[in-house]
Write a structure and sequence with these properties.
- This protein is about 25% helix and about 30% strand.
- The chain has seven helices and 15 strands.
- The chain starts with a helix and ends with a helix.
- The longest helix has 24 residues.
- It is α+β, with helices and mostly antiparallel strands and about 300 residues long.
Length: about 300
């Protein structure tokens, strides 16, 4: 009897060592979990499949709250959200956006049109599952008010509209140094008119500048969008793009040099970019008045009351 007990103990010990070695052989990584829901907190758990138990990690606040966890490839995590009534299981790869059954977040931008003679809006459906890091950075910038007052500085019909250089030089210089890692494509998502992506300059170069694919773009150009690693779509305009505010934004300056006579991005980044350069050289440009997450506005008003 004693011999059998000793044998079981030895076998259990050896199994424990084997599991430890297997874990060490797995790639250890730090995962960032981001809660992009407008109002709901998320309790994150690690699923321990060896014991059948569940380990509470932490509570993550909404609106970009995040948690970094050291874990291993293949480890499974879960969370539930009261609003959708189900538990969500997943194996993160390095950066995970937590949305539950929500597939998009609506951002609304109020813009001037016809050279600031009128105004309009366009709604952006942000798709974090398409491009987790890109979507989260965009939402972070929107929530901080980064895009308020930003010039629509590159408007080329049949090609793209580009923006994302902040009005405040301190703000634009700060965020311009905080590039994010490129996202692996979630799926084979071909670009279409109205899709949004980052305008980058190389691998892992995405910061704040965004482009929207214009209506009327040719298929060859649509196929070319996304060839660069930083051009992963993270959202799209809601509704009919051909009748959207995009078609009412001033485009008379053409593309930026050397392809046209529009504003030079490097000059906008200068200290006098918004105070002298744009108003004097390009007085007809249109601007974004404000961008905001739609589902967060009413809540903010209620909190103030």
């Amino acid at each position: 009897m004693a011999g059998a007990f000793l044998l079981c103990s030895v076998l259990s010990f050896l199994c424990a060592i084997a599991r430890a070695v297997a874990n060490e052989q797995q790639q250890r990584r730090q995962v960032t979990f981001v809660n992009e829901l407008p109002n709901a907190q998320i309790d994150l758990y690690w699923e321990n499949h060896e014991t059948g138990g569940r380990k509470f990690e932490d509570t993550i606040d909404p609106r970009g709250g995040f948690l970094r966890v050291d874990t291993y490839d293949g480890h499974e995590f879960s969370y539930d959200i009261e609003s959708d009534g189900e538990r969500h299981y997943f194996q993160p790869k390095g950066f995970a956006v937590l949305l539950g059954s929500t597939h998009c977040i609506q951002v609304r931008c109020d813009v001037t049109t016809y050279s600031r003679k009128s105004s309009d809006t366009f709604n952006i459906l942000v798709k974090p599952y398409w491009s987790p890091r890109g979507a989260s950075r965009f939402l972070e910038l929107v929530r901080s008010g980064y895009y308020d007052g930003v010039a629509l500085n590159r408007v080329v019909p049949g090609f793209l509209t580009q923006f994302g250089i902040a009005k405040d030089p301190t703000v634009r210089n700060h965020w311009g140094k905080l590039a994010i890692v490129d996202d692996l494509p979630f799926d084979d998502i071909p670009f279409q008119p109205g899709y949004l992506s980052y305008a980058g300059s190389g691998i892992d170069s995405r910061t704040t500048e965004i482009f929207i694919v214009m209506p009327g773009v040719g298929q060859e150009q649509l196929d070319y969008f996304g060839e660069n690693s930083w051009e992963t779509p993270f959202g799209l305009l809601e509704g009919n793009v051909e009748e959207s505010a995009l078609t009412k934004i001033y485009s008379g300056h053409g593309d930026m040099p050397p392809w046209g006579k529009g504003p030079e991005s490097s000059r906008i980044y200068d200290e006098d970019g918004y105070t002298t350069y744009l108003p004097n050289a390009f007085p007809l440009l249109d601007y974004i008045d404000r961008c905001y997450v739609v589902d967060e506005v009413d809540t903010d008003i209620e909190e103030e009351l």
